[in-house]
Amino acid sequence: MQTVCHAAAWRRRPVRVRRAVGLVLALLVLLEWSANGRSLAAQEKSLLWEVSEAGKSLFLLGSIHYLRPENYPLNRAILDAFDASKQLVLEIDLNNTPAGAAQRLTLEKAMYRDGSSLAENVSEETYQLTARRAAELGIDMQVVRPMKPWFVALTMVAVKLQRMGLNPRLGVDHHLAERAKRDGKPTRGLETLEFQLGMFDRLSKREQESMLRETADEVERLDQKIDDIVKAWLKGDRDRLEGLLLAGKRDYPELHQKIVVERNQRWLEEITKLLRQGNGAMVVVGAAHLVGREGVVEMLKVRGFSVEQR
Is 220 in a helix, a strand, or coil? Predict the structure, then answer.
């Protein structure tokens, strides 16, 4: 896609715009949310798998990062898997990432250090669209003026979700991390916060603008998409989740490769090691990483592991 996209041409691409919703959800690492008040515990299936080989096993769970209080308690299968596991493995070790250090690192990566501004690094059209959406969300453009496009995109989605009553502190990963701390269960991360932030920061100028433009264009229409994702997640319907979360990969294959597939491949090696060590781990990652032919679940099957959905 060209960096500058005229408004008239943009409106003539309805299919591409619809796919962009999936891009916004999948590429912001805010991949799964719940705007539904139904109890997860009532469901017979969940996005949970038991992976085994030669008498050793671990649990693999697709996470929802934003939830409401009424979404608890979690599915019994998830809680039983957690209780049966000797260690909790998350994308980032939430129990050993100090909040102050995380904030400093985020600002260090998110801000332009050469004195330039957001307006100088995106097209006028993208900037004006972003400014309109920011005003609707109550975001002061003067505050985000020195911020890079990828961070502004993440901020808009986070604010939108919180205005819908969704709380990251109630996400599955945070909830299980808190339980692990309470129970004295060790935790670790597949990645560091620095790596995750760097992943976005290393995106090209064109890719960052595309990410911001699509987010600004679609953020006001996230409500129904989130509901659809939740319904599929509650049923453990990975085929439906694949369609919802990975729709943008056809239009943005480079972004999909960098943010989803390459990480899946790295995690596959770590998960294989964890399984063969026999330490009884529970691995929790974003749901988009477990679905599709390039998802971790299918990669494990190709390697010959037994993989059973719970």
Answer: helix
User: How confident is the model over 82-132, as pLDDT tens digits?
Assistant: 999 999 999 999 999 888 888 999 999 999 999 999 999 999 999 999 999
Q: How far apart are CA 254 and CA 261, in angstroms?
A: 10
Confidence at residue 13, expressed as pLDDT on a 0 to 100 scale: 36
> Residue 122: helix, strand or coil by DSSP?
coil
Tokens 């019994």: give the residue. Answer: 76
The model's pTM is: 0.84
Angle value at C-alpha 166, between 161 and 171, nearest 5 degrees: 115
| Domain spans of the chain, in order of start | 41-309
Using CA atoms, how far apart are residues 171 and 130, in angstroms rounded to an integer?
Answer: 27
Question: Do the Cβ atoms of 265 and 293 come closer than 8 Å?
Answer: no
pLDDT digits (tens, 9 = 90+) for 59-88: 999 987 887 888 788 899 999 999 999 999
